[in-house]
Amino acid sequence: MLPLKIGAALMVADLPAHRDWLIEGQRDLEVQDFLRPDVLLGDWRAVVAEAKRLLDGFEGRLGIHGPFYDLALDTADPEIAPIVARRYVTAVEAAASLGATQMVIHSPFTTWDWFNFGDHPRRGNTPSAQEAKTARVHALLRDAVALAEAHGVTLVIENIEDIAPGYRRDLAQSFASDAVRLSIDTGHAHYAHHATGAPPVDYFITDAGPLLAHVHLQDADGFADRHWPPGRGTVNWHAIFRAIAALPQRPHLVLELRDPADIPAAMAYLEREGLAH
Q1: Mean pLDDT across 10-32
Q2: Strand bridging mode 62-65 / 29-31
């Protein structure tokens, strides 16, 4: 039922400015430092310790953004794939150390896939292009998923270039694990709708259904990945929040804005529209 309580995705350096707001409402929080290669390759335990210090008293739902730069989930190169796999394992270790229950990872599906999967169907014993991609993702994430299951962390697969949301849904379901679910980024879906013919954002939410565990809330113009506060772009927020409210579960809902200073403006708009508090 509307309005829905929402939180934010923030770097540790931004936590002091928003700490009171987060703790007073015990809002959803996503710590994003762990998407940076230098953090996971360096002293990530120090980042965890600083986040814990700043979040003393926080009891809301907590997640992190996992790595993604040059770390494709379907990496095929036999020398590179183990390096990528280890990075995801390290990220799960960081999430567990922080006490997070979610980690955002990026979808492996590209615009190219949507246009070309149909040209490479299953032929005899040769798997389809989609099946082959799914198998590569399973091989790469095997250890990360096992560790996530052991620590109560859920990997949520975020749409990036995705045109057909069903591909990502099928991938998540193929793991048959409570540790793999879906994430939706509203700005990414809005871009895909306008630029590549994907369905509108609320269709992504409805398609994900009970698998949807996390949502990045950001506004855009359908052309670029703006990360504007809601109300500045052309995203249909009423359709999105109605679709979320109709779900049987409440996914983590976090504003992911380019400038965290825009959080008050975003909240003012959503509260005025009767969508969030």
Answers
A1: 98
A2: parallel
